[in-house]
């Protein structure tokens, strides 16, 4: 297929000359993705009308690269017409078997056990899906999660039409976050958008991608991995072997609530019930 002008400009700026072909690939709800190849080289590319979104992803991948296997950033192009992110192409497959899940847990633990800055956030603002995500720093985790996570998402969801009962319950949860969240949990770099679709393997080695990084409670990543179904016990065996820690399950629904609100804002109706059910269960918990 003929290459879009935006992509041709990105390739020229990156110095990637060749007779390229682009094969669109499915997956992801935010950017248009494809595999770019010329018979010798192969890259994975993303295109989006908002170049800031792809710039943020590139920064996140580069931040994670010191601790995790991630696709290498080849070039990030920005213009008034949009942005292009050119990444190393990896033949990523799903995790299978206990050994691969254990390795994934150990890899994530290596990220989480590195002590971060003294303040939560402490990373350039980015996006969660297509929604802006502020990473303004705070010395208190509950304050951070209130002001930079739940409150902005509740405002967006309410503007989108979140039913008043769900909005009211969510507001009550926000007022009582100290019931479920510690004020000073460990402050580590987190992936930030670690559902199971953003984790895979290449030749048995775990690979992480599509991050929304910041510094915060490592439990946010563990919670999101279970958002659409639990992970195998081998994952936790690998994680605990590298970073022995208590799994604070009582916090996980709070972290889930952030993502359910975002899903409602981005995709609408079907997620209103998930928001309401999560808030209701939290308020009913002891």
Descriptive report:
- This protein has 286 residues and is of the alpha+beta class.
- The protein has 2 domains: 84 residues, Phosphorylase Kinase, domain 1 (2-Layer Sandwich); 188 residues, Aminoglycoside phosphotransferase (APH), C-terminal lobe (Aminoglycoside 3'-phosphotransferase, Chain: A, domain 2, Alpha-Beta Complex), CATH 3.90.1200.
- The protein contains 9 helices and 11 strands.
- The strands form 4 sheets. The protein has a 5-stranded antiparallel β-sheet, sandwiched between helices. A two-stranded antiparallel ribbon has the order 6-7.
- A hairpin with a 4-residue loop joins strand 2 and strand 3.
- Helix 4 packs antiparallel against helix 5 and helix 8 runs antiparallel to helix 9.
- The longest helix is centred in the middle third of the chain and has 20 residues.
- The protein is globular.
Count of domains: 2
CATH-defined architecture of the largest domain: Alpha-Beta Complex
CATH fold description of the largest domain: Aminoglycoside 3'-phosphotransferase, Chain: A, domain 2
Structural class estimated from helices and strands: alpha+beta
Beta content comes to: 15-25%
Instruction: Please mark out the parts with pLDDT under 50 across 5 or more consecutive residues, or reply none.
Output: none
Tertiary shape: globular
Q: Largest beta sheet, briefly?
A: 5 strands, antiparallel
Strand order, biggest sheet?
1-2-3-5-4
Q: Taking all residues together, what is the mean pLDDT?
A: 95
Rg result? 19 Å
Per CATH, the class of the largest domain reads Alpha Beta
Could you spell the SSE succession in H and E letters? HEEEHEEHEEHHEEEEHHHH
- The number of strands is 11
Oligomer: single chain
What percentage of residues falls in helices of 4 or more residues?
40-55%
